[in-house]
Amino acid sequence: MVAIRLERVWSTWPFSRGSEAARVEVTPQLVVTHADMLDDLVRRGEGVTVLPDFVAAKGVADGSLVPLLAEWALPRRPAYALHAPRKRLARIVEEVLDTLRDAMRAGASRAAAAARS
User: Fold this and answer.
1) What pLDDT is attached to residue 85?
2) By the 8 A CB rule, do 17 and 73 touch?
């Protein structure tokens, strides 16, 4: 197993399927702090992990990643982009936010389509 360290290592995976729930305890052999590193490790065959839809989508679409337990779901986690309060954001900040929104929407859509197939 490989895991990401956020505020703590995510070592319990809480799956659900309809009204069923299952908590899986994992013992990561490697812990990293960035989802892209998890993606690279899993593509190299270093283990099994949980990735955000927008990170996994390309690998699922091109066949370099294979969804496991596709009929089970993990809790959705919110993502926030924050800035100082201003009436108008700098153009570059608006462009970055637009790019993030588009990438996350596209990734989530591709991952959902791949999981259904």
Assistant:
1) 81
2) yes
Q: Tokens 């993606």 map to which residue?
A: 39
Neighbour-count burial for 67-86, b at 16+ CB within 10 Å, e otherwise: eeeeeeeeeeeeeeeeeeee
Choose between 78 and 69: higher pLDDT.
Answer: 69
CATH of residue 9: 3.40.190.10
Number of H helices, E strands in the chain: 3, 4
Model pTM score? 0.61
Amino acid at 28: P
Contact criterion met (CB below 8 Å) for 15 and 24: yes
pLDDT tens digits for range 76-107: 777 777 777 877 888 888 888 888 888 777 76
Instruction: Give how many domains the chain has, as a whole number.
Output: 1
Expressed as residue numbers, the domain containing 67 is 2-116
